[in-house]
Amino acid sequence: MLFTVALLVVAAWLYSKYCHTYWAARGVVTIPGYIPFLGHSHKLFRTSYPRWLYIDEVYKNLTGSKFCGYYDQLTPTLMLMDPELVKTILIKDFNHFADRRNFGMTSKRDETVKEMLSFSNGDHWKRIRSVLSPIFNSSRIKGIFPLVALKADALVDYIHREIKSHSALPLRKTFALYTLEVISSCAFGVETNSFQGEEQIINDMADKLLNVSGSRFRNMKTLLFFLFPRSCSFFKISFSPPEIVFFENVIMETMKQREKGGKRGDFLDLMMEAREDQKDPDLKAPKYPLKDVTIVAESILFIIVGYDTTATTLSFIAFLLAQYPEQQQRLRQELKNIVKEYGTLTYQGIMQAKFLDACISEALRLHPTINFVERICTKDYNDRHIEYLKDGMRFALMEVKLALAKILLDFEVSCAPGQEQMEFAKSFGSMRPSPDMKIVFKPLINCEQ
Ligand code: HEM
Ligand SMILES: *[C@@H]1O[C@H](CO)[C@@H](O)[C@H](O)[C@H]1NC(C)=O
Ligand SMILES: *[C@@H]1O[C@H](CO)[C@@H](O)[C@H](O)[C@H]1NC(C)=O
Ligand SMILES: *[C@@H]1O[C@H](CO)[C@@H](O)[C@H](O)[C@H]1NC(C)=O
């Protein structure tokens, strides 16, 4: 008996050893520090050492390599470190790398999450993606610009009010109010009044949905899905937090109201229109009418992908501009020139501002809030080519540019005393500023442009 167990253990160990020869056998440099069975995945258990720091360390250690070998437990995974190669995989050879990690969700509560673009794969993903794509096209984003502009104005008013009683404002929290306002208004038309501090329910629920401050339990559960997706499937562990039900109800309710009339041109309306368009008998492309659950899922996805990422990005940019006053002044001058040219901050003006765009790209390069993207190598897909990522980004950039432009025309930003360097939150997932980070806003005397 004991002998059999020992034999099994040895066999398993040898198997693990064998799996972990994959990269060496192909002459690919393997990141050191992998262990039997878990491979490199044990590195993710350290809550005090976030994943982005680990990835950064690997990248710096292997400077000059275009890629390196990583073992996701027993699965060989290629980590790309070369921007051109990344582009090839995500855009040019996209058809070979269309799928994302499959978490094998089986719990009832995950019915919605499974429908989200980011969690679906194969044909289903492709079809939802092509139905949804047009809602982010440039004419639509231009159409939604006024909704965002209202929120950017409200942010500026909020900052004016807050600085009367505070010498510095919390970086992430301030921008999170703005991005939640924007996303709940633009995604499904709920006015959250965050700036007034009213109706905190949506804010609380969104924070809980994402658990921004990172509960240990939640992190552990996410890790379980990364490490043991099959066991999670078997035990029907739910991937989604309970708060998802709240959003499902809010959005279903809103959809019912919209069916009775009262459109506002937000993403929910556009998705419902896209569903109607699919009923057109003359439609050439294969039909794919969106189900209610899919529309609800994408609305919640917009909160998940659009709230925290954008708030964090704005925080990093604002902080960098505070650190580099000359660049801040240069950007302000560009914005003033645009206002002079167009009379006001228009969609065209903002999208043409070259230095504004460069500042955002540079901030994203230095502090990428989402620091890894995964793709599974799939077999040949030989039809429609769908370009990756352009859509959501177009909206995000407009949102970020507008807020920055309005802020810089009204305030000078500078570092709070003692906070001249960025401190990062020790959160398990994305890269964020520490919640204690503050920034100073000083009103500009704005008599001449
Ligand atoms: C500056 C803030 C943002 C950053 C840095 C960012 C970054 C990213 C990245 C890296 C991905 C790819 C994830 C993957 O493929 O695994 C992604 C996907 C996505 N983003 Fe954003 N994003 C931002 C804001 C937004 C906003 C405001 C929206 C609008 C609702 C949005 C909509 C989407 C959608 C729908 C996807 C999924 C696309 C798909 O599955 O094909 N993002 N984003
Ligand atoms: C990077 O290199 C140092 C020095 O060789 C080593 O101690 C460290 O473990 C390496 N880090 C990673 C993530 O491989
Ligand atoms: C965007 O999509 C809408 C509806 O599908 C369409 O009417 C419009 O022409 C598109 N605009 C662009 C710039 O593609
Ligand atoms: C996230 O989880 C932590 C730990 O349980 C908790 O202290 C925190 O309040 C939660 N964050 C939010 C925004 O709910």
UniProtKB/TrEMBL annotation:
<dbReference type="GO" id="GO:0004497">
    <property type="term" value="F:monooxygenase activity"/>
</dbReference>
<keyword id="KW-0812">Transmembrane</keyword>
<keyword id="KW-0472">Membrane</keyword>
<comment type="similarity">
    <text>Belongs to the cytochrome P450 family.</text>
</comment>
<dbReference type="GO" id="GO:0005506">
    <property type="term" value="F:iron ion binding"/>
</dbReference>
<keyword id="KW-1133">Transmembrane helix</keyword>
<keyword id="KW-0492">Microsome</keyword>
<dbReference type="GO" id="GO:0005789">
    <property type="term" value="C:endoplasmic reticulum membrane"/>
</dbReference>
<keyword id="KW-0503">Monooxygenase</keyword>
<keyword id="KW-0256">Endoplasmic reticulum</keyword>
<dbReference type="GO" id="GO:0016705">
    <property type="term" value="F:oxidoreductase activity, acting on paired donors, with incorporation or reduction of molecular oxygen"/>
</dbReference>
<protein>
    <submittedName>
        <fullName>Cytochrome P450 3A11-like 1</fullName>
    </submittedName>
</protein>
<keyword id="KW-0408">Iron</keyword>
<feature type="transmembrane region" description="Helical">
    <location>
        <begin position="300"/>
        <end position="322"/>
    </location>
</feature>
<keyword id="KW-0349">Heme</keyword>
<keyword id="KW-0732">Signal</keyword>
<keyword id="KW-0560">Oxidoreductase</keyword>
<feature type="signal peptide">
    <location>
        <begin position="1"/>
        <end position="19"/>
    </location>
</feature>
<keyword id="KW-0479">Metal-binding</keyword>
<dbReference type="InterPro" id="IPR002402">
    <property type="entry name" value="Cyt_P450_E_grp-II"/>
</dbReference>
<dbReference type="GO" id="GO:0020037">
    <property type="term" value="F:heme binding"/>
</dbReference>
<dbReference type="Pfam" id="PF00067">
    <property type="entry name" value="p450"/>
</dbReference>
<dbReference type="InterPro" id="IPR036396">
    <property type="entry name" value="Cyt_P450_sf"/>
</dbReference>
<dbReference type="InterPro" id="IPR001128">
    <property type="entry name" value="Cyt_P450"/>
</dbReference>
<dbReference type="InterPro" id="IPR050476">
    <property type="entry name" value="Insect_CytP450_Detox"/>
</dbReference>
